[in-house]
Amino acid sequence: MKTFGFIRFLLLVASATFMVQCTSDPIPGPPGADGIDGIDGIDGMDGVDGTTSCINCHSNAYREPILLAYSESAHANLRSFGASATCARCHNDQGFQDYLSNLYIDSLGFATANPDGYDVPDPISCTTCHDMHRSFNFEEDGNDKAVRSITPVDLFLDPDITIDIRNASDELGLSNLCVNCHQPRNQYDIPGPTADFEITSSRFGPHHGPQSTMLEGIFGANISGALDYPGRGSAGHRQGSSCIACHMGPTTNGSDGGHTWEPTTNTCLNCHTGGPPSEVDGFEADFDRLRDLLIAAGSIAPDSSAVLGVFPANVAQATWNWRMLMEDKSMGVHNPNYAKALLKNSIEALEN
Ligand code: HEC
Ligand code: HEC
Ligand code: HEC
Ligand code: HEC
Ligand code: HEC
Ligand code: HEC
Questions:
Q1: Are 233 and 217 a contacting pair, CB within 8 Å?
Q2: Closest C-alpha to 152, from 144, 161, 143, 140
Q3: CA-based diameter of the chain, in Å?
Q4: Which of 61, 98, 92 lies closest to 78, judged by CA?
Q5: Which of 211, 301, 317, 347 could form a disulfide with 221 if both were Cys (CB 3.0 to 4.6 A apart)?
Q6: What is the Cα–Cα distance from 297 to 257, expressed in whole angstroms?
Q7: Mutate which of 266, 272, 283, 334 to test ligand 6's pocket (most atoms within 8 Å of Cβ)?
């Protein structure tokens, strides 16, 4: 008798309208006879729990902690850099949407945000990352959480390289969303192994957010030395894990995972069953050692910025590597073996 309730609802709405329109008439007439029962509705499909699955996510109660986590995260930071299209494509809500739309192309041939910039400082928010479900058949197609883009990403630094973070930990490739912004920008060349190299900016290196390229194991200045560089995409964390698995996994106590984007130990425990290692073996000592060597070579200032000037190839390469590991901000965790090889081989090249 599914439609019975619906018809009563319609009658209620009709009578409510009636009462609103007739407030000038204070005497209501006698109630009419009950309507005829409606026809039974069609049975639901087996195995699909209809709207309850929707309401699980689409309720205010469910969203409250998400909003709270988001508001305390770095993504809610008000630095939205709206005036410049170059910055807005990663730092501004509308800017990122316009960048993904492919409506504007910059002089280098890359999709960008509106070249006129944006008047509204619009930080990264729900609508930056979310749009609409691609399919409502979650059982067969998976739930894409209405993430705005899952398309593999051609990198700014080399558009011939495409990153597609899709594996068992992220079957639909939701982490590809992150790669759009968490990749270095195409400002500087990676120094080669032989020629002297001129550093022309204090921000020299894969500037801001080389997390995706670090995870992938690319864009270091691979100085040769005692340690082999792991092949592209071969890191354990790249093969069995993903941005969303580590940073948005199930929370331990509300302060990590989900929309805090803080890595959650619950995910680490899937593989490191005794608890994750406290650091990438030797990272801190080698990172500090390389920094001291570069300060001595004159290419890194005490405040960690790069020093302008012409440097021998090995110094320029080692500077690039140190700044890359610094900008990655994971203390080598994104790709432990790549981080170790970059550090050890850079130190070796400077000490010999
Ligand atoms: C796992 C969580 C989840 C489930 C389950 C889910 N959604 Fe969504 N849906 C989202 C997210 C996240 C968004 C992005 C927009 C937002 O958060 O408001 C979204 C967006 C939408 C939108 C477009 C934006 C809006 O809010 O108007 C519609 C429509 C929608 N969902 C309908 C549904 C329906 C219908 C179902 C059930 C068949 C469903 N969703 C199940 C997470 C979910
Ligand atoms: C390709 C995307 C992208 C573009 C383009 C971009 N940024 Fe960023 N920016 C990021 C990401 C990602 C981070 C956060 C990186 C991190 O925390 O490791 C960031 C961080 C920053 C920070 C904070 C740095 C810190 O260490 O706290 C500043 C300031 C900043 N960007 C300024 C700018 C300006 C100004 C522009 C335009 C000239 C710009 N960005 C263009 C992606 C981008
Ligand atoms: C930086 C990008 C980003 C922003 C900003 C963001 N989300 Fe999400 N959201 C995601 C991704 C990616 C997932 C899928 C995570 C997963 O599958 O583990 C997700 C999942 C969800 C889900 C369903 C899964 C869950 O966590 O239960 C909901 C609901 C949701 N987001 C709502 C929101 C709301 C509301 C906001 C704004 C307060 C927001 N999101 C902001 C990227 C984002
Ligand atoms: C629209 C571009 C954009 C997208 C998409 C995006 N981020 Fe970010 N993210 C940023 C920027 C910009 C910052 C730095 C904010 C600031 O400090 O002003 C940031 C900060 C962060 C931080 C904190 C860094 C810090 O210094 O504290 C983490 C962790 C992070 N993002 C992870 C992710 C993950 C995981 C995803 C994918 C689900 C993602 N981001 C998607 C642009 C983006
Ligand atoms: C194996 C788990 C793992 C994977 C996979 C992973 N991360 Fe991380 N990430 C970490 C850990 C652990 C840190 C260090 C956090 C800290 O020390 O605060 C970190 C640090 C970061 C930071 C700097 C955060 C800060 O507070 O300074 C950003 C930004 C970030 N990751 C983004 C990403 C993006 C984007 C991806 C996918 C391309 C990714 N991560 C993949 C575990 C992971
Ligand atoms: C999919 C399985 C998997 C997950 C999930 C995972 N790890 Fe790992 N981790 C590995 C593997 C495999 C290695 C060895 C290095 C390699 O193969 O690239 C490793 C190495 C490490 C190392 C380097 C240890 C050393 O001796 O130098 C650290 C640190 C680490 N993981 C931390 C973490 C943290 C923190 C998390 C959670 C945020 C995490 N891992 C999640 C599989 C995983």
A1: yes
A2: 161
A3: 102
A4: 92
A5: 317
A6: 41
A7: 272
What is the domain partition of the chain in residue ranges?
55-131, 149-351
The tokens describing 261, both together, are 């984007």
What is the distance between the alpha carbons of residues 37 and 40, in angstroms, rounded to a whole number? Answer: 9
Cα–Cα distances (Å) from 69 to 36, 249, 336, in that order, read 51, 13, 28
From the CA of 206, which ligand is nearest?
2
Residue (of 176, 298, 181) closest to 243 by Cα position = 176
Tokens of 148: 């705005």
Residue 137 burial (CB count, 10 A): 11
Measured distance CA(328)–CA(338) in Å, rounded:
12
C-alpha dihedral sign at 83, 85, 89, 94? positive
Closest to 254 (Cα-Cα) out of 77, 68, 63: 68
pLDDT (tens place) for every residue of the chain, 352 residues total: 333 333 343 333 344 433 333 334 455 556 666 766 655 544 444 444 557 788 989 999 999 999 999 999 999 987 888 888 889 999 999 999 999 999 999 888 889 999 999 988 889 999 999 999 999 999 999 999 999 999 999 999 999 999 999 999 999 999 999 999 999 986 678 999 999 999 999 999 988 889 999 999 999 999 999 999 999 999 999 999 999 999 999 999 999 999 999 999 999 999 999 999 999 999 999 999 999 999 999 999 999 999 999 999 999 999 999 999 999 999 999 999 999 999 999 999 999 8
Our answer on whether the CB atom of 271 is closer than 6 Å to any ligand 6 atom is yes
- Taking CA atoms only, the protein residue closest to ligand 6 atom 16 is 236
Reading the block at residue 149, the tokens are 């883009």
Q: Is the CB of 92 under 6 A from ligand 4?
A: no
pTM: 0.91
Q: Cα 80 vs. chain centroid, distance in angstroms?
A: 16
Assigned token pair, 163:
């990153």
